[in-house]
């Protein structure tokens, strides 16, 4: 069945190697009113393993309706590679990917859009700006419809 | 008679056809008295008719006249003769020799002369050909080799080793070619070296650029945390403040005061310092990023009026110019073919600096002028401000380094920018300055190949 679900039923994967950033992002999402489960993956490989339903995550409550907040500079597999792999696979290419990173270089932005990301958000150092960006993202997620992957 | 016969038969000195002939006249005939060389039985039997075409000298002799010359004898042959009438004996005498024989030696001489002349001509022609060939051949060879060299093949040499001028020329030519070839190789080597060096420089430049990018990007990441968690601390502090306020009446006044100071002053003060430092660091990283991106921006060339650019820059500094009683001399500035934004940044920066670093004890005087020549444009911004002291001169173009005078605002980025912008176009920036007298900054920008060229 391919019915769309609203954000309430969606699980959010936060792919971010810096624990500080991950915490800040989560806090701000919560402040924006997002109550969905957030699963933190520390690097690109862990992200792929989790999304693909890899064996080592069997004990984890595996989620199937997903939204991915993806950082670009991660070890093992970086954000570009994760993005590429996700969009190349039939099973995962419909998962909405939101790039959330410190780079604002327009070549990088273009590269991400070329690889198929849905949205690109820059994390500014200015905290106000950052939290505002995350909160707006949260509000945005509130209204967006995520396809059900089944 | 025999005496006469003997005389007539004596051919001494008369060659092989010469003879002496005697004859007497008998009626209308000349009768030969002696045996003739060519007719031994002619004596008294052979005669020649007077008036005929034979024995003409004899006929004349018998008619009384003597002479010499070419005539026809009794055979009808041409002879060279001398004839005479002998009155005592009434005889005619002819001494003759065949003209053939007479002229034979002359003919021979003439022939020899002709042959010699012919041989000489042939000899001269041949000699001429040989000499010219011997001259031309090396010249042709020289020409061939010269052409070969002109077309880029430096291997040719002349193999002439005669000791004359041609040999000397060939030898000199070979030496010259050797020299040219050697120098050519030196130049090629140098050019290879230069290429390698500029490739290395280029690579190093790229490394620096991406280094700047990586450094600023990777250094930003922790800043996000620092700023972020300072913000979180603020929230936490707010919550604590609320909770303390709720418990306030349970505390002793000194206690209340101490806690209040901690929550309202100490903690916020620390956080403020952290926050300010983070902001500064962010600003510097942004500036470095900007600088590293400057090289990458795609330039758009157009006809840029420098007078307009300078006027715009001066307009934005109008207030400062007025309050410092500064006179600005904007001389005739050219229109140059360059990128508008680049020119705006360069002029804005230099003029801005000139205004910023004026001396406080005298009215400012700024002069902006330019020179154009075949290779490019040189722009001068001259001021009578504070100048730059000798120990500061090295730091002028360094990023983040600023002048001693702390009363002037700025990040210390301007001149580093201008230098990067100028260098990106193969131009340059330099300055002359004397502390407390003033400075002149000079920017050189080479000409761009014009679109309308």
Walk me through this protein's architecture:
The complex is a heterodimer of chains A (150) and B (453). Chain A is an alpha/beta fold. Chain A has a single domain, classed as Response regulator (Rossmann fold). Chain A has helices at 19-31, 44-51, 79-88, 106-115, 127-143, and strands at 4-6, 11-15, 38-41, 66-70, 97-101, 119-122, 145-147. In chain A, strands 3-2-4-5-6 form a 5-stranded parallel sheet. In chain A, strand 2 (11-15), helix 1 (19-31) and strand 3 form a beta-alpha-beta unit. The longest helix of chain A has 17 residues, at 127-143. The model of chain A has no long low-confidence stretch (mean pLDDT 77). Chain B is an alpha+beta fold and 453 residues long. Chain B has 9 helices and 13 strands. The longest helix of chain B has 83 residues, at 165-247. Chain B is rod-shaped and about 205 Å long. The model of chain B has no long low-confidence stretch (mean pLDDT 85). The A-B interface holds A 18, 20-21, 24, 27, 73, 102-103, 105, 123-128, 130-131 and B 213, 217-218, 220-225, 227-232, 278, 282, 293.
**Helix amount of chain A:** 25-40%
Number of domains of chain B: 3
What class would the helix/strand composition of chain B place it in?
A: alpha+beta
Number of domains of chain A: 1
Indicate the proportion of strand residues of chain B: 15-25%
The greatest interface between two protein chains, and residues involved on each side, is: A-B, 17 and 18 residues
The CATH architecture assignment of chain A turns out to be: 3-Layer(aba) Sandwich
Read across the widest sheet of chain A, the strand sequence of neighbours is: 3-2-4-5-6
Q: What's the total number of strands of chain A?
A: 7
Q: In sequence order, what are the helices and strands of chain B, one letter per element?
A: HEEEHEEEHHHEHHEEHEEHEE
Are there runs of chain B of 5+ residues with pLDDT below 50, and where?
none
Question: What do we call the CATH homologous superfamily of chain A?
Answer: Response regulator
């Amino acid at each position: 069945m391919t019915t769309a679900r609203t954000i309430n039923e969606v699980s959010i994967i936060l792919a971010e190697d810096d624990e500080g950033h991950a915490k800040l992002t989560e806090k701000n999402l919560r402040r924006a009113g997002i109550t969905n489960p957030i699963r933190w993956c520390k690097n690109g490989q862990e992200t792929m393993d989790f999304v693909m339903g890899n064996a080592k995550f069997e004990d984890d409550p595996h989620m199937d309706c997903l939204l991915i907040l993806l950082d670009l500079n991660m070890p093992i597999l970086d954000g570009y590679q994760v993005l590429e792999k996700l969009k190349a696979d039939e099973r995962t290419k419909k998962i909405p990917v939101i790039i959330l990173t410190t780079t604002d270089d327009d070549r990088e932005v273009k590269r991400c859009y070329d690889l198929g990301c849905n949205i690109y958000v820059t994390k500014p150092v200015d905290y106000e700006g950052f939290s505002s960006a995350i909160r707006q993202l949260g509000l945005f997620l509130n209204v967006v419809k995520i396809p059900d992957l089944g | 008679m025999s005496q006469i016969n003997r005389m007539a038969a004596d051919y001494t000195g008369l060659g092989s056809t010469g003879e002496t002939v005697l004859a007497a006249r008998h009626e209308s005939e000349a009768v030969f008295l002696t045996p003739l060389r060519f007719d031994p039985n002619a004596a008294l039997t052979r005669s020649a008719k007077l008036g005929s075409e034979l024995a003409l000298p004899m006929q004349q002799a018998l008619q009384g006249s003597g002479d010499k010359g070419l005539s026809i004898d009794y055979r009808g042959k041409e002879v060279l003769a001398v004839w005479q009438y002998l009155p005592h004996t009434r005889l005619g005498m002819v001494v003759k020799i065949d003209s053939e024989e007479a002229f034979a030696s002359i003919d021979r001489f003439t022939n020899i002369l002709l042959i010699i002349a012919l041989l000489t001509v042939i000899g001269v022609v041949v000699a001429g050909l040989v000499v010219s060939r011997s001259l031309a051949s090396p010249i042709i060879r020289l020409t061939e080799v010269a052409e070969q060299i002109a077309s880029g093949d430096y291997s040719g040499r002349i193999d002439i080793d005669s000791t004359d001028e041609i040999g000397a020329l060939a030898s000199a030519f070979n030496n010259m070619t050797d020299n040219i070839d050697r120098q050519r190789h030196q130049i090629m080597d140098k050019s290879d070296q230069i290429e390698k060096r500029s490739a290395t420089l280029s690579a190093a430049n790229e490394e620096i650029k991406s280094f700047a990018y990586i450094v600023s990007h990777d250094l930003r990441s922790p800043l996000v945390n620092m700023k972020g968690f300072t913000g979180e601390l603020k929230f936490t502090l707010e919550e604590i403040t609320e909770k303390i306020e709720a418990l306030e009446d349970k505390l002793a006044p000194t206690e209340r005061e101490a806690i209040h100071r901690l929550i309202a002053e100490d903690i916020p003060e620390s956080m403020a310092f952290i926050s300010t430092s983070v902001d500064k660091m962010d600003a510097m990283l942004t500036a470095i990023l900007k600088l590293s991106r400057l090289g990458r921006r795609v330039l758009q060339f157009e006809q840029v009026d420098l007078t307009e650019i300078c006027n715009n820059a001066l307009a934005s500094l109008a207030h400062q110019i007025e309050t410092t009683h500064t006179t600005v001399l904007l001389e005739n500035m050219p229109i140059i073919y360059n990128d508008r934004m680049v020119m705006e940044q360069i002029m804005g920066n230099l003029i801005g600096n000139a205004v910023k670093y004026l001396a406080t004890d005298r009215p400012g005087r700024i002069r902006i002028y330019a020179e154009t020549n075949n290779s490019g444009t040189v722009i001068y911004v001259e001021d009578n401000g504070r100048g730059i002291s000798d120990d500061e001169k090295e730091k002028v173009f360094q990023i983040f380094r600023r002048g001693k005078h702390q009363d002037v605002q700025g990040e210390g980025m301007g001149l580093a920018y201008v230098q990067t912008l100028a260098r990106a176009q193969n131009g340059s920036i330099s300055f002359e300055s004397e502390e407390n007298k003033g400075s002149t900054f000079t920017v050189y920008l080479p000409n761009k190949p014009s679109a309308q060229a």
